[in-house]
Specification:
Layout (H helix, E strand, L loop, with lengths): L3 H14 L6 E2 L2 E2 L1 H17 L41 E4 L5 E3 L2 E3 L4 H4 L6 E5 L16 E2 L18 H16 L5 H32 L3 E4 L5 H13 L3 E4 L25 E4 L2 H6 L9 E3 L3 H11 L8 E6 L6 H11 L5 E6 L8 H4 L8 E3 L6 H6 L3 E4 L3 H5 L6 E5 L8 H5 L4 E3 L2 H9 L9 H4 L4 H18 L1
Parallel strand pairs: 3-6, 3-8, 6-7, 8-9, 9-10, 10-11, 12-13, 12-15, 13-14, 15-16, 16-17
Antiparallel strand pairs: 1-2, 4-5
Length: 478
């Protein structure tokens, strides 16, 4: 069986050998949309790491509906054909929001939006149950790219199960020695067909917003997922430079950012803003290395400064366990709950946002002596700052722990290889079983070795504004 740290290289080799980016259905090269969903399902089958999906409906031809309350765009600028608001920058927010006080904030884009030096328009997109209000950004515009899509009863030709398996799925079954289940085929068909069927309508919706602002540069996140791919393609057609703001600590074994060669995918953003030089050097980006710009992480800088100025209020030592969609972590949680002194320690189990509504079906034997966090009422930095120990398998949150004087432990379960940067820098310790973990935690000595600058470039806001200025100037001269 293939090892976890060999997966990405093999996946990229397969898509290159079979020339999947040239694969067409109805004149649409659809591998750029299918790639993300296929890699997640294959990963789950091979390593048991849960696969998230954006769309799921028992009737696969039903028009796309999120679980959030459907809300039409109310901002006049997007309705009035005579009304425009030209700005230098258009920023689509990262809409995974967490509660801070009486506001919901995006830890990826809000701090940037609040500190852009050039003129700008901020567009908020829906997430989960709707639009979160209020946000701390003034003059924000609300926009759902799926609004009205499919409602004109146009004739769409979706790819069917047999065609999809023959053109695509059969390749991965053979190469990875797997068999997709009927349910996996169904859900892959749904996700891929949304973009085969509605790509042109989505591009029209994006073009409507972009043309109203007429920006010199567009910033956004998650460029590798369906909507993001469509946005990138739209910007390329309009001749506007695109920048993805990286929202996680990815490495050379994460398929969405790694490619066998530069230029394979014609729907990648022109530039990507990353956290560190280490990260820039490690990943096999599908765009020229010069277009990967090291900027740091504004929210991490801000929050750690705020929280480190406050004293911890906990009487007990806090053990925070970070979920990463991996069921194997449950045994560590339960063993810790059994073996540690409850008068001295407390355990917090921070679920991944994708698990909030389903964790009871995933973790069926969790100890009732732990605190389970299944909401975004507080951000991850709150939990990291109030911890003494942080534990996980593979998560950006474990890198963010470097902002704080905490001991970080990586569990040797499938997927831990994604934390090799921290392990090689000796900012975290690899533990092989729960007994070893308990021994480390109960030891009197500290294993913390704080190395923030290795993982997050300092002065992020200054760096971002400088890079934006340079990119706009460069494209003005072309």
């Amino acid at each position: 069986m293939i090892k976890y740290d060999e997966f990405c290289k093999k996946f990229c080799e397969v898509e290159s050998r079979y020339k999947l980016f040239d694969l067409e259905f109805n004149g649409i090269k659809y591998w750029k949309y299918a790639r993300y969903y296929i890699c997640w399902v294959v990963r789950e089958k091979l390593f048991g790491i849960s696969a998230p999906f954006w769309f799921d409906d028992k009737n696969e031809w039903k028009l796309p509906q999120y679980t959030h309350k459907y809300q039409k765009v109310t901002d006049a600028i997007f309705h009035n054909i005579n009304l425009g608001s030209q700005k230098d920058i258009l920023l689509f927010t990262f809409s995974r929001r967490i509660k801070r006080g009486n506001k919901y904030i995006s830890p990826v884009t809000d701090e940037i939006a609040l500190n852009l030096e050039k003129s700008h328009c901020i567009v908020e997109t829906p997430y989960c149950e709707g639009y979160y209000r209020p946000t701390p950004i003034r003059d924000i515009k609300y926009f759902d790219v799926w609004d009205g899509v499919g409602k004109e009863h146009k004739i769409y030709t979706p790819i069917n199960r047999g065609q999809l398996r023959k053109q695509l799925l059969y390749i991965f079954e053979q190469e990875f020695d797997i068999i997709f289940t009927a349910e996996e085929k169904r859900i892959l068909l749904i996700n891929i067909n949304y973009f085969i069927m509605h790509r042109s309508e989505l591009m029209t919706n994006y073009r409507r917003v972009i043309s109203k602002i007429n920006p010199k540069l567009v910033l956004y996140t998650s460029a590798y997922i369906g909507n993001g791919v469509v946005l990138t393609e739209t910007l390329k057609e309009m001749g506007i430079p695109s920048v993805e703001i990286l929202h996680g600590y990815e490495d050379d074994n994460i398929v969405p950012y790694n490619y066998s060669e530069v230029g394979m995918n014609d729907a990648l953003p022109d530039y990507i803003f990353v956290y560190s030089q280490i990260q820039k050097d490690l990943i096999k980006w599908g765009i020229p290395k010069d277009n990967i710009r090291v900027v740091g992480y504004p929210e991490g800088e801000k929050r750690s400064t705020e929280l480190l100025a406050q004293k911890k209020k906990n009487k007990k030592k806090v053990i925070t366990i970070i979920s990463s969609l991996h069921q194997s972590i449950e045994k560590y949680v339960n063993d810790l709950a059994k073996k540690i002194d409850k008068d001295k320690y407390e355990i917090v189990f921070k679920l991944h946002p994708a698990e909030f509504g389903s964790w009871k079906s995933i973790y069926k034997t969790l100890s009732n002596e732990i605190q389970i966090i299944d909401s975004n009422d507080k951000d991850i930095h709150y939990y990291l700052a109030n911890s003494d120990f942080v534990i996980g398998i593979n998560s950006t949150a474990l890198f963010e722990a470097a902002f704080y004087p905490v001991d970080v432990f990586i569990l040797e379960e499938e997927g831990y290889q994604g934390m090799k940067i921290m392990l090689e820098a000796k900012r975290a310790i690899l533990v092989h079983d729960s007994q070893e973990l308990v021994s480390y935690i109960t030891a009197e000595r500290s294993v913390n070795n704080q190395k923030v600058d290795d993982f997050f470039q300092r002065n992020a806001i200054k760096n971002i504004n400088k890079e934006i200025e340079g990119i706009i100037r460069k494209h003005r001269e072309i």
